[in-house]
Amino acid sequence: MTKSTLLITGGAGFIGSHVVRLFVNKYPAYRIVNLDALTYAGNLENLRDVEPAPNYVFERADITHPEQLREVFEKYRPDGVIHLAAESHVDRSISNPVAFVETNVLGTVNLLNAARNLWKDNPGGKRFYHVSTDEVYGSLGEEGYFTEETRYDPRSPYSASKAAGDHFVRAYFHTYGLPAVLSNCSNNYGPNHFPEN
């Protein structure tokens, strides 16, 4: 019997596949639902080793389609969401900013709405964890560091779209009481990294 269900968005991507693997292996009593649209950066080969695990499920869905999210949330009724799905390449954001708004802003709002609708009567023990980027703070230069008190100063369509997503997560926390947290990660490198990045 599973203790709870965790939905991980973007789980076939670089960072997401490592997060999925960690949770599948470390928490065998949890059902781990990997939701990914399998765009250019998503690759299920990243997860072949955990595919047979009894607590692992893959759902192909796009966070920009609210009806797909509604179906997944109704089917699995997740207790937690780790939101990693994002358009993340700065150069692509310069050539096609609308795609970044659709995924990183509207997609995030769609997920927030799906979680809010599911948890509105019983938010206890639930968590929406939004994974963002330190690029929302602007350019660091050659030395120094950002803190949680650093002022937002996005400098590309990518970082602007992630900053907007961050603001919606905070707004849902304050306006609706959605149990949400966010983190702003710096660059990561390693196995399964999409070559373009």
Give a short synopsis of this structure.
This protein has 197 residues and is of the alpha/beta class. It contains five helices and six strands. Helix 5 links the parallel strand 5 (127-133) and strand 6 (180-185).
Write a concise keyword list for the protein shown above.
5 helices, alpha/beta, 17% strand, 197 residues, 6-stranded parallel beta sheet, globular, 37% helix, 6 strands, Rossmann fold, single chain
For the record, the CATH class is Alpha Beta
In whole angstroms, the N-to-C terminal distance is 40 Å
Count of domains? 1
Care to count the β-strands? 6
Describe it.
- The protein is of the alpha/beta class.
- It has one domain: 3-Layer(aba) Sandwich (Rossmann fold).
- It has helices at 14-26, 66-76, 90-95, 97-119, 157-176; strands spanning 5-9, 31-36, 56-60, 80-83, 127-133, 180-185.
- Strands 3-2-1-4-5-6 form a six-stranded parallel sheet, with helices on both faces.
- Helix 2 runs parallel beside helix 4 (97-119) and helix 4 runs parallel beside helix 5 (157-176).
- The chain is globular and about 45 Å long.
